[in-house]
Structure formats: C-alpha cells, structure tokens
Amino acid sequence: MQQSAQSHGDGGRKSARPRRSSVMRYAALCLPLVLASVLLALVTGAEALPHETALAARGNTVSLPSASNFVVGSIIGQPPTTRHYNFVVSEMKGAPDGFTKTMLVVNGVFPGPTIEANQGDQIVVHVTNQLQNRTTIHWHGIYQNGTNYYDGTASVTECGIPPGQSLTYSFSVADFSGTTWWHALDTQYTDGIEGALIVHPRAYPKGFPTWDEDLVVELTDVYHTLSAAIAQQYVTGDGPIAPLELETPDSGAINGIGQYNGSTKYTNFNLKPNKTYRLRLIHMGSAAQIRVSVDYHALTVIEADSTLTTPLKVAGVTLGVAQRYSVLLTTNQHAEPAGNYWLRAELASPVAVPGTNADIRAILRYGGGSALPTTGADPGVPGSGLSDLDSSKLVPAVVKTPPNPTKSYNVNFTIGGTPSGGTVATMNGTSWTMLKNAATLVDLWTDARRGQTFAPEGPSVQLGNQFMITEDSIQVVDILLINLGGGAHPFHLHGHTPYILGSGPGGFPGSSALNTVDPLTRDTFLVPSQGWLVFRIVTDNPGMWTIHCHIQWHMAAGLLMQINSLPSKSAKFNIPQDILAQCGV
Ligand SMILES: *[C@@H]1O[C@H](CO)[C@@H](O)[C@H](O)[C@H]1NC(C)=O
Ligand SMILES: *[C@@H]1O[C@H](CO)[C@@H](O)[C@H](O)[C@H]1NC(C)=O
Ligand SMILES: *[C@@H]1O[C@H](CO)[C@@H](O)[C@H](O)[C@H]1NC(C)=O
Ligand SMILES: *[C@@H]1O[C@H](CO)[C@@H](O)[C@H](O)[C@H]1NC(C)=O
Ligand SMILES: *[C@@H]1O[C@H](CO)[C@@H](O)[C@H](O)[C@H]1NC(C)=O
Ligand SMILES: *[C@@H]1O[C@H](CO)[C@@H](O)[C@H](O)[C@H]1NC(C)=O
Ligand SMILES: [Cu+2]
C-alpha cells in the first residue's frame, strides 16, 4: 500500500389501502407493534495486514478493515465490468472507541468493505445473514431504475433476509456516480453494518479541480447499547432514560476509531507533503450532526451527496446524518512542527450527557514524525477569514434547470412524546410502522398479479400505517415538507436525487422563495426546525420509494412515508424468487 494511505494506530506512538385481501394485516399493524485491536499498521509506510489474517488473529471480535479500504481511485479507467462482493453479516464484539460492545458487522470488520465501481459497472453483492434477526442492505442514493426490489428497504421493497439465508443484490450504476454508502435496515446499521460506496464518473466536467489522492473518511456516532434496545425504549418509554438522552451517542468514530473514557487511539492518515487530497466525508451515523474541520487547513467543497459542485472554500463543514461532502485539502501548512494535524469531528449531540465524548479526532500526518499534534483547542484556519459551509450557497458544477412542476403536495410532520413517556412521529398524521414479513412493493405486485389495483392515484392514501403518494404517470412533483416541531431533520428520498428548491424557518413564504434556476440536487437534506423545505422530482422511476428522516430513532418512531411511482410498470417487475420466498409469497 502506498505510504500516503491511511493506517490505524494508538496515537502514532506505535504506531395499505382500499379493500383487498390483506387489509387485515395492515389494520393489525396499527396496533402498538413496535420494535418492535486494531491493525497496528506502523505509521510510516506500513503494510496493513490482510484482514483475513486479522480475523484469524482476533477470533470473534471486530477488526478494522485494511487501510486500503479507505483509498479509492485505482480502478478508474478500467473497462466496464461486473463487481462481485460477498457480505457475511454477523454479531461480534467490538470496541471502536475502546469500549467493548455487541456489534453487527459485515465480514468481521468495521466500517464494512468499501464498494468501489466505475459508472457503467454492474454491482453484485451476495449477502448472507448470520444474525438472529432479519436484515437487508440498502444502497443509499442509488437509483435502482427498474430494480426497485433491490433497494433493500425492509417492509417496503423486501421482507428482509431471514437468519441463515442469503440474497444477491444486483444493480447497475450506469446512471449514477459519486460518494455514497450502504447500510442495513432500520437501526441495525447503528450497530455497525455499513460501509462506503464510491462510483467514479465516466468523466469530470471540463475545468473541474483535480487531486493527487482520494480517501474515504467515514464518520459516525457510536452507541454502547444495542440499537434494538435503544429503539425499544425510545418508542415505548419503557425504561428510565429520557428520549433525548437515549438519542445522545456515547462517542463517535472516524474510519472505525474514536475516543471515549480517555482512550488515545486515533485513525492516522499518512499523507505526503505538498499534495492535494480529496477527502470523501460520509456521515454514517444515526443521530448527531457532525462538524468536520482540519486544524490550520482550508477545505474546498467539490461534492454534496453525489452532486459535484462549483468549488467553495470553507473552514469546516457540518453533515446531517447520511449526508456526504467531498473536500479538497492541500498538505502545505507549517503550524505544527512535526507536520501532524488534528482532523476534528465534533458531534452536535441532542443533549449533554455526562461521560459522553463529542470531540472525536483523527490525525493527518505529513511531516514524517509520529508525535501527537500539539494543538489544543480548535485553532480554525488562522488569517483565512473563512467561515463554515452554508450549503444553500452550493451550486452544482453542471447546472440542470428543473422542469416545471405538474403536481404539488404538502406533508407536515411532527415528533413528540407519548403519555407513557415514549416517542411517536407522524407524517400528515400517520406514524409509520414496519410491516412484519411483508413489504408494500411485494404486496402491490402480488395484488396486481391477481388483477387488483393497489392504490388510487394521488395523495393521502393511508393503508394502516403506510402513508403514500401514488403517481401512475410521469409527473413533475413538488413536495413541501413542513416541520411542525423544533429540531432540524435530515430527510432522505430513495431512488432519486431531488432538486432542493428552497428551505427556511417559519411558514412557507410562497413560490417566490424557490430557486428554479440552479438549485442543488442531493438525496439527503435538512428540514429546518419549525421550518419548511421544497424538493422536486420526476416520477419516472417505477417502484416504492421512501421519504424518511435518517435519524434512526425518529424513523423507528414513525417518521417515514412512501412514493409509489408508476405502479402499472412495477406490476410488471420480474421480482426475484428469493425475495418473494423470503416474504412467504
Ligand atoms: C433482534 O430483534 C429483537 C426484537 O426486535 C431484539 O429484541 C433483539 O435485540 C434483536 N437482536 C439484535 C442482535 O439486534
Ligand atoms: C473508564 O476507564 C477506567 C480506567 O481504565 C475504567 O476503570 C472504567 O471502568 C472506564 N469506564 C467506562 C464507563 O468505560
Ligand atoms: C512544499 O512546498 C514549499 C513551497 O513551495 C517548499 O518550500 C517545501 O520545501 C515543499 N516541501 C516538500 C517536502 O516538498
Ligand atoms: C398536518 O396534516 C394532518 C393530516 O392531513 C392535518 O390533520 C393537520 O391539521 C396538519 N397540521 C397542520 C398544523 O397543518
Ligand atoms: C397532508 O395534509 C394536508 C393538510 O390536511 C393536506 O392539505 C395535504 O394534501 C396532505 N398531503 C398529502 C400528501 O396527502
Ligand atoms: C428510468 O428508466 C426509464 C426507462 O429507461 C427512463 O425513461 C427514466 O428517465 C429513468 N429514470 C431515471 C431517474 O433515471
Ligand atoms: Cu428526524
């Protein structure tokens, strides 16, 4: 592995629906269901152990992936191909921040394997479930145009892979490029089932900045309690801990290593001086917003989610859950004598809980020394006058003018306490609950085969706890999300990269507040506290697509709805037999 690649070390010292047969099933679900060592690559030019070796050496405990997992770009230029991956999902013990806990992981590593492809490739991932519960893998941001059943959305596009069984996901990235990630269903990813998914574009726009090396930086919050237990308490109120405290992470991690209770292990990025690096920041966490900065270094934003942007120089960026930014950083500073700098990931936790750590760090090294950076408090980028990223200032590198809308809907949402001390969230009055061993797409498809229609076109279709908008023709749809409560929520829409036309605090001021000239497109967007956001999509991708808050606890409490696009087309899907069988069809 190249000297510039990342290593891990201990501080561097050593390194729904109108009448149909299954109406009853949905009705039942309205009831309170609910929830239901580190590879010591030595700092200088070290070769990481292959992770098979690490697994053998460490037994049934989670290892860090080999450092090459975080370096991407070597496959650029290869002819189009099918890229195969084998994922084995299992339960293990692991300690990302030094505290040993139960983890759910892929292939025994955390974060999981990086999937890397070129635009035009086919990605095939064979997933074997060795957990005691069902699981699915979702490919965040991928369009799955024609393959909605491989979207990996539990209770929506599939019923989940039962324990001991497998499912092979196969999808094209001919229509997608950029920085994204994959993760397990609902809160399971909080326990570790997640990794990067990088798709290199066929070409970059003319004049787009270049870089010497390309690194993935996977950011997460860390919870010491198994997510299923947190979600259960959060929703039911059955436990002594208040909801906001339950939401608050114990710590965080950067590429699998974080700090807690005085631990001093850090991820080391071993860089070369006078080079430009592309850092692909990916928020793979569950609740806290994360602000990322590098001491003394400006960051130039060039990508938001999977959309390339006009370069914008900033001092720091804040990511909501599931958002991504690529930033360029040049290794040309001299403030630290040994050339070692903190990369800081500050968690904005919902509430201050004693003993938790919101100050998570990694080290960028390009001076050759192995000492810890000496900088204490965050110095910022002295003399630069730079401020943090305001994402409303980002302009796509290739501007696409949105088509004029043909339909518009508004949806309000709330999240709040229940009489029993739990939490419930609603979208237009419906609190989503997961179907057990059923999926809305599979139900639609099965009904269509029996000559039944799934749902009438238009809004306000509420089938049990499944609330959806159905469009059986290609429409340009504006959706106004209205946040009735306090706190910003990072919403994600599956299968699309919507135009984000505008957002703001207070009531929606009207269409004059929308940018229909050069809006940013992105798949995960923050709806401001007691505010609004409008996004626009074209319903030309057949299937069932969720719109949900990506804060895992909020989704568990019901903050999710669906868009059912072109049901006449999805009725003709050739849904794989494995998926039908796993739904008991
Ligand atoms: C499996 O699911 C059950 C029921 O939701 C939950 O109590 C249990 O903690 C889950 N196990 C794991 C390892 O997530
Ligand atoms: C923190 O570390 C100390 C010293 O190693 C240990 O005794 C204590 O149990 C740890 N506390 C937690 C919550 O991990
Ligand atoms: C980096 O560039 C600066 C300014 O051009 C130069 O002074 C310095 O020697 C270079 N450092 C290395 C290690 O090449
Ligand atoms: C939110 O939507 C629900 C369902 O349509 C409606 O009953 C409620 O009045 C709306 N709330 C506000 C504040 O608009
Ligand atoms: C949500 O509720 C509002 C207020 O009742 C209504 O105007 C709107 O059409 C509903 N949206 C959908 C998508 O059903
Ligand atoms: C999906 O595929 C259909 C048919 O090929 C095409 O018309 C449509 O534009 C595609 N949609 C997206 C979002 O790529
Ligand atoms: Cu939320």
UniProtKB/TrEMBL annotation:
Main subcellular localisation: secreted
Source organism of the structure: Phanerochaete sordida
Protein name in the entry: laccase
Enzyme superclass (EC): oxidoreductase
Origin superkingdom: Eukaryota
Alphabetical list of SUPFAM superfamilies matching this protein: Cupredoxins
Record keywords: Copper, Disulfide bond, Glycoprotein, Metal-binding, Oxidoreductase, Secreted, Signal
Signal peptide, first to last residue: 1-48
Homology family: Belongs to the multicopper oxidase family.
Pfam family, one: Cu-oxidase
Reactions that this protein is recorded to catalyse: 4 hydroquinone + O2 = 4 benzosemiquinone + 2 H2O
Organism ancestry: Eukaryota, Fungi, Dikarya, Basidiomycota, Agaricomycotina
Cofactor(s) this protein requires: Cu cation
Localisation per UniProt entry: Secreted
Domain Plastocyanin-like: 91-202, 213-368, 455-566
UniProt GO MF annotations: copper ion binding; hydroquinone:oxygen oxidoreductase activity
GO-annotated cellular components: extracellular region
CDD domains in alphabetical order: CuRO_1_Diphenol_Ox, CuRO_3_MCO_like_4
EC number annotated for this UniProt entry: 1.10.3.2
